[in-house]
């Protein structure tokens, strides 16, 4: 009888221990059956000072931050030597989305106008509305990775070219056909802008590609330089003729 009682007591103690979760750490756990959480449809809430700070509900996580000292959330990576290609924070969308879904969005209390939004389609947006339904003045944003409303101020911008053919040095080739000045004057009189340079209305409607515009402006400078060289050569010839005529007087 004593043996039966002892075995029963040990079984109850083992069962009680199996149902507990030690605050000083646990060993021999099975993630499939041992976890902190709920098995029903109730939320999992974490509190400090009897106030809710963190909640997991319906597959979402909510942080309730209320502090005037320090940052709300600190993510500190204390790894001395991380492997190349790793990240401190990685946000991953497992399933490709056909619609416009955000991976990370930062906003003020007016959530309809986020400050920053990284989209699942690889776009980075700043200063547009919540659902990316109105990219102000951006008629072809699908061709670009980054859109910033209200402008960008920076100390340096570098534009890369795929090949030397993208630059305008071809103007100085011997076979380049330079538009005569009288034809250039005719074009300007009729169109009120230089050839190949967009008009003011076109700029307002379509904007300006800085790379393309810089190449075009360089092209016009080089064409102007060729015209100046040609005019200078003509003036030098005229000066020689005038000097020769004065000698023959």
Automatic annotation (TrEMBL):
Keywords: Coiled coil, Signal. It comes from the Bacteria. Residues 1-18 form the signal peptide. Residues 221-248 form a coiled coil. This is Cell wall anchor protein. It comes from Chryseobacterium oranimense.
């Amino acid at each position: 009888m004593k043996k039966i009682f002892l075995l029963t007591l040990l079984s109850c103690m083992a069962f009680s221990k199996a149902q507990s979760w030690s605050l000083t750490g646990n060993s021999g756990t099975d993630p499939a059956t041992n976890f902190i959480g709920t098995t029903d449809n109730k939320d999992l809430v974490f509190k400090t000072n009897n106030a809710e700070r963190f909640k997991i509900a319906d597959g979402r996580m909510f942080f309730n931050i209320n502090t005037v000292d320090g940052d709300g959330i600190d993510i500190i990576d204390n790894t001395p030597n991380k492997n190349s290609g790793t990240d401190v924070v990685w946000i991953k969308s497992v399933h490709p989305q056909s619609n416009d879904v955000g991976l990370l969005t930062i906003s003020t209390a007016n959530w309809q106008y986020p400050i920053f939004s990284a989209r699942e389609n690889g776009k980075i947006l700043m200063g547009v509305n919540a659902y990316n339904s109105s990219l102000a003045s951006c008629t072809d944003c699908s061709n670009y990775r980054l859109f910033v409303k209200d402008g960008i101020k920076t100390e340096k911008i570098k534009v890369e070219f795929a090949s030397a053919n993208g630059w305008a040095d071809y103007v100085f080739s011997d076979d380049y056909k330079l538009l005569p000045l009288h034809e250039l004057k005719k074009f300007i009189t009729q169109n009120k802008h230089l050839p190949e340079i967009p008009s003011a209305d076109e700029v307002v409607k379509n904007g300006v590609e800085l790379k393309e515009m810089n190449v075009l402006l360089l092209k016009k400078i080089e064409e102007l330089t060729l015209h100046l060289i040609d005019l200078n050569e003509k003036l030098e010839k005229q000066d020689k003729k005038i000097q020769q005529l004065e000698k023959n007087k």
